Amino acid sequence: MAKKSRTYERFIEKVKEISYLNQALSMLRWDQETYMPPGTVNDRAKQVALLSGIVHERMTSKAMGRMLAELKKDRSLDEDQAVNVREFARDFKRATALPAALVKELSETESYSLDAWGKARKEMNYKKFEPWLDKTINLKCKVAEHIGYKDQPYDALLEEYEPMMPTKDVEAILTPFRKKLVPLVAKISKAAKEARVDESFLTGDFNVEAQRIFFTEIVKDMGYDFERGRLDVTTHPFTIGEALDVRITTRYNEKDLRPGLFSCIHEAGHGLYEQGTLAKNYHTPMGVAQSLGIHESQSRLWENVVGRGMPFWKYYLPRMQKAFPALCRVPLDLWHKAINMVRPSFIRVEADEVTYNLHILLRFELEREILEGKVKISEVPAVWNERMEKYLGIVPPDDVQGCLQDVHWAFGLVGYFPTYTLGNLLAAQLYDKVQTEMPGVEYGFAKGKFAPLLGWLRQKIHQHGRRYMYLDLCRKVTGSTIDEDHFINYLKKKYGPLFGVQL
Ligand code: ZN
């Protein structure tokens, strides 16, 4: 037992208060995206701004700075306590680095930029968004200068989503990955096309309430705890909250089961991660998830590796056929093939798991080239289309299906995209480890039993909160650093037999 430090106790009390305030903010945001009456929007903006201001004040207070300085030197802290200090100190550093005027300008730009992005999409006119993208990038460069970086400005931006992960390390992972992936995508999508899979049953009339009931069952089976969470409807599915209140959202399409189904599994994967931290650590950095890359490894593992796998559907297809009798004649192997169809497409969020990462690699490269001045803002659409043709062999007919499709840049999220691919790579590597440590785990999936997998993820990942960074966690759990071959081999093993092609 560590010697009790009075300063640490005071520090943790403050940290928890900040966490409760953030939790309240999360619930206001959740409400805004789900049930809030539209007329409340101005009040809500005031509430959120006021609470955010209070959080910022508390996080960056002189007293907090003094406590952190003292605690960083305190050798009597145990390991978990030291993690809490280390992680909060990182948040403190980022929060105090930016001058108030810059923060204000960023948030104002964000609303105008979002508005311009919406108009540009509506009018299919990139020029409407161009000045705002330019401004956002300039502000992001200023942010990077204030935060500081070792090697390149992108480091400082990426760090917000993937801590302690320099750009050159991500590049060293993703560039060789891209070289292997491009030819593989071409081969798999050619074979998939030639397989002429009947996908007609994927669209039809699927009662939304029946979808809700069926998907809720799946999410429950996965282990998501409805005593500490909810599943609601939004336009863009997300997971929000921590500790005893982790909420997930989805969207239903009455003509197609897939958007609701896979976003439920995906968001439940995120939700399970947050629900899997230890109660004793709630409202401290040890009690929340570490990075977006790790987060995405969890959601993708459930969504793609488990949820698009044959064992999963052995169990769920008969159940789904009961809920949706129109599907009653679809054989298991055809269903499995149809939901795993591979074809190059324009829209990232609709992409299959084989082509998906090329969408990300394009964005990761382009963001850096823009920041480095190698690509001018006016050249973004042309470079985007050129790169789509090079990687996926298709050219978007317009910018709405090209560089205007994602909300991220309009929202000021620069440096965010690579975390999706980092998540996919980690998911494959983790799953290889799962299979060596628990051979036959998939037989359980075929009976609707996911507790062994969830138990493993809880023990190896969820319970650690922010103890490990992405690469540390990967080494700790799998015994080696991140290696794209796990994902490449996963694709070969799955899609070779699926579409009858030698990979
Ligand atoms: Zn996600």
What share of residues are in beta strands?
A: under 5%
Q: What characteristic shape results from the CA principal axes?
A: globular
User: What small molecules are bound in this structure?
Assistant: zinc ion
The proportion of residues forming helix, as a percent range, comes to 55-70%
Q: Uncertain regions: pLDDT < 50 for 5+ in a row?
A: none
Radius of gyration: 23 Å
Distance from first to last alpha carbon: 55 Å
SSE-based structural type:
mainly alpha
Helix count, DSSP H or I runs of 4 or more residues: 20
Order of helices and strands: HHHHHHHHHEEEHHHHHHHHHHH
> Which strand order do you get reading across the main beta sheet?
1-3-2
Number of strands: 3
**Describe the biggest sheet?**
3 strands, mixed
User: Could you report the average pLDDT, rounded to the nearest whole number?
Assistant: 96
